[in-house]
Design goal:
elongated, 82% helix, mainly alpha
Length: 212
């Protein structure tokens, strides 16, 4: 297992690389951010940064960020759809999975749209998994996810274009501390997700005996 310093260096290198790629980098980041181990806030920061540097193309970065997020979300949905409820309950505790099921069955379309609009630390991955596990319609799922992510990244890219000069000045002064902070949050989220996943796997493999 990588040490925290090596992990920080690896994620830092990856973030710098996707930033240099521009729009295609947002697609790659969208795949990672909507996976089982997300990178919270990374898509928002990169979208704002790119829109601030190229203000006349803010709409392009909003569109590409939305496309990357939807593609990543659909892959996660597809994996959960193939695995069914059992796959979701291996990644979450059964009680948490039941809570997500109830919310999804109550709100349906909006159970995907609203989390897709909300900023971190609000998690969207459990709802992507629930949509697949409950065999929700692919067309409705894509429509809900595209609507939510489209609203979110259009607003974020627009803010980057409007306040571009201030944002660029901030990143030019505090780029390294901001990047380290972002990466630290990403690593912490990844470690927490990994620990929780292993704990749930252990619980499912060694169920507690019921009292008589």
């Amino acid at each position: 297992m990588l040490s925290p310093a090596l992990l920080l260096l690896a994620v830092s290198t990856f973030m710098r690389w996707v930033a240099r790629l521009g729009g295609p980098g947002l697609v790659l980041l969208g795949l990672a951010d909507n996976s089982i181990i997300p990178l919270p806030g990374s898509m928002d920061v990169l979208t704002i940064w790119l829109a601030a540097h190229h203000r006349s193309y803010w709409w392009y970065y909003a569109l590409v960020a939305t496309g990357g997020a939807v593609l990543g979300g659909y892959l996660t949905y597809g994996l959960a759809k193939k695995g069914g409820k059992e796959a979701l309950e291996k990644k979450l505790s059964k009680s948490k999975a039941e809570q997500v099921y109830r919310r999804f069955e109550r709100w349906g379309f909006w159970a995907v749209t609203v989390p897709a609009m909300l900023p971190p630390p609000f998690p969207i991955v459990p709802f992507l998994l629930a949509a697949g596990a409950l065999q929700y319609s692919p067309k409705k799922f894509l429509a809900a996810l595209t609507l939510g992510r489209g609203i979110r990244f259009t607003a974020i890219a627009g803010l980057g274009a409007i306040y571009g000069r201030h944002i660029v000045n901030f990143f030019s002064r505090y780029y390294t501390p901001a990047l380290i902070t972002l990466i630290s949050f990403s690593i912490i989220a990844g470690i927490v997700a990994l620990v929780q996943y292993k704990r749930m796997r252990h619980t499912s493999a060694h169920p507690q005996p019921r009292a008589a």
